[in-house]
Amino acid sequence: MLRRIFPHPVLSVTLVILWMLLVNRFALGSLVMAVILAIAIPLMTAAWWPDRPRIARPLALIPYMALVLWDVIVANIQVAKIVLFMPSDQIRSAFITVPIDLESPEAITLLAGTITMTPGTLTADIASDGKSLLIHSLHAPDPDAIRDDIKTRYEARLKRIFG
Amino acid sequence: MLSEILIAVFLVIGGVFALIGSYGLLRLKDPVQRLHAPTKGSTMGVGAVLIASVLWRFFLGDGLSWHEVVVTIFIFITAPLTALYLARAHLHRTLRRQGLPKPANGRLWAGEDLGLEEGN
Prior knowledge:
The structure holds two protein chains of two kinds. In chain A, 27% of the residues are buried. Chain A has two domains: 2-48, no CATH class; 58-162, no CATH class. In chain A, 58% of the residues lie in helices and 11% in strands. The longest helix of chain A has 25 residues, at 61-85. A three-stranded antiparallel β-sheet of chain A has the order 1-3-2, with helices on one face. In chain A, a hairpin with a 5-residue loop joins strand 2 and strand 3. In chain A, helix 2 (9-23) crosses helix 3 (28-45) and helix 5 crosses helix 6. By secondary structure, chain A is mainly α. Chain B has one domain. Chain B has helices spanning 2-27, 31-59, 67-94. The longest helix of chain B is centred in the middle third of the chain and has 29 residues, at 31-59. In chain B, 26% of the residues are buried. At the A-B interface, helix 2, helix 4, strand 1, helix 5 and strand 2 of A face helix 1, helix 2 and helix 3 of B.
């Protein structure tokens, strides 16, 4: 019964939280509206998530987000240093192939997004079989180190989260 | 007083990073390099301004505000997507495919695998 009303509990909870954040103050009326949306939107969008993502360890997402947030700050300072002080003929940009072992599209999307937000790297494309990412690095004196760093720092953690 | 100084510090940090991001857009050489400056520089710029906004509401306004959290979430969703689209558009336009490294198992990149080369 509960399953019928909330076919996608994660989406419903996300919608309630998002609506309450948008309203920006707690009121019972807003909560009722949030619950109505949390029931209606999953029903209307059911066609677009036939295989909804299964997150094995959702709690592990929180330290992961903290790690990414920290890396974003470090990334900004690094990129700012390169932009301000490095002569342009010394910036060695490179395209790098990163083979990925992640299976679920959601995990790969999260990895690609993380790569774009963090130190000097950018996701430019994905292989047609979904098994490699094409990364562009702003300053890559050692492309292999960057590839290994992405695999150990982010991919390993995502693999644990998505199971 | 102290809170105002703190807010001002965050606003200045935000402004400096936004400025560096825009300057990078001018200074770096090719389009893919240029993408790096705005995706990072302005994220930090917007982030610092958002923290200043939270602090202002908290100390001088009417209590805790959650809108900044929502803005942060939306930026983290949209910024990488925009960068990805721009990077792929650039790869299409410049036809520098020959210079790209191959995927791990020798297949094609999704942007190449459109059958465009065969003329459909």
